[in-house]
Design a protein that fits this description.
The protein is globular, with a radius of gyration of 19 Å. The chain has a 5-stranded parallel β-sheet with strand order 1-5-4-2-3. About 55% of the residues lie in helices and about 5% in strands.
């Protein structure tokens, strides 16, 4: 197959992201760090254009590469470099119009990867991931308990159970590396729950939960979307930051689950008008 650069319109990119698994592609932001911190598309990997030439090897040859910048011009140059260097055997895309034309949700600040110790081993990163899953489960459970009669309550109940189930799946990977792993229930009970997947503390999220404003349904679902979008951003970024292939695979599978949570919350927005 002859390689070419495929142009993606913003709506096409949204469709692409929703229909592909996280392991299938990497979304590369080639702007400067300050631009990225100001706002970026969730899940984007920062690789500034000036650094691209010496860091093309960071890009996975078995993934589609999607480049974007402010207007689509720098990213087109990046896509051209990737094409000329045969960086990937898969497809190469450029976001037409860049982030200026993107009307989806963007995130401010860098993904909160500091919640993972930079040089932590595979086991320690999995343990931290379980703690974040427990924090999210606790947050959603408290939201359900405080508004049990609300039309949207079932969504938070479902998410609470999903986060616990997610922690259990991470536990299986963690336990495989332990000589005598304690049972999941015992481990989960002893995990800290003071930090969410988004990197926010549970106390910070609860303060927002206690002050939802007049439109409780809309504001709480937006709060949950904020948590899940940041979690999606975090895990995709961690998959690129880690050199451990096993953790990369797990991080991408977690990101895939976070995306399904986002989709469930978006559907639940319809209940806010009922």
């Amino acid at each position: 197959m002859s390689q070419t650069i495929n142009q993606l319109k913003p709506d096409d990119l949204k469709t692409y992201i929703s229909s592909h698994k996280e392991k299938d592609y990497v979304l590369v932001d080639v702007r400067q760090p300050a631009e990225y911190e100001n706002e970026h598309i969730p899940g984007a990997f920062l690789l500034p254009l000036p650094s691209l030439l010496t860091n093309l090897s960071e890009l996975n040859s078995e993934q589609d590469l999607i480049f974007y910048c402010r207007s689509g011009k720098r990213s087109m140059a990046a896509a051209t470099l990737a094409l000329e260097d045969n960086v990937t055997r898969k497809r190469i895309y450029n976001l037409t119009g860049g982030i200026i034309s993107w009307q989806g949700k963007t995130l401010a600040d860098l993904p909160k990867v500091r919640v993972f110790i930079k040089n932590a081993g595979f086991s320690e990163m999995l343990y931290t991931a379980m703690e974040m899953e427990k924090g999210a489960a606790r947050f959603y459970n408290l939201a359900y308990e405080r508004y049990p009669e609300a039309t949207f309550a079932h969504v938070f109940n479902t998410l609470s159970k999903a986060e616990t189930a997610h922690a259990r799946s991470i536990y299986k990977q963690w336990a495989a590396g332990q000589e005598n792993p304690i049972p999941f229930e015992q481990l989960f009970e002893g995990l800290k729950e003071n930090i969410l997947e988004s990197g926010d503390t549970l106390d910070q999220a609860l303060k927002r939960l206690d002050s939802p404003g007049e439109d409780i349904c809309l504001n709480l679902i937006e709060l949950a979307l904020d948590v899940e979008s940041a979690a999606f951003d975090l895990y995709r970024t961690m998959s690129h930051r880690s050199d451990d292939q096993s953790f990369q695979e797990i991080a991408l599978s977690i990101a895939q689950a976070e995306k399904s949570h986002i989709q469930a919350l978006i559907k639940a927005l319809g209940e806010c008008t009922e």
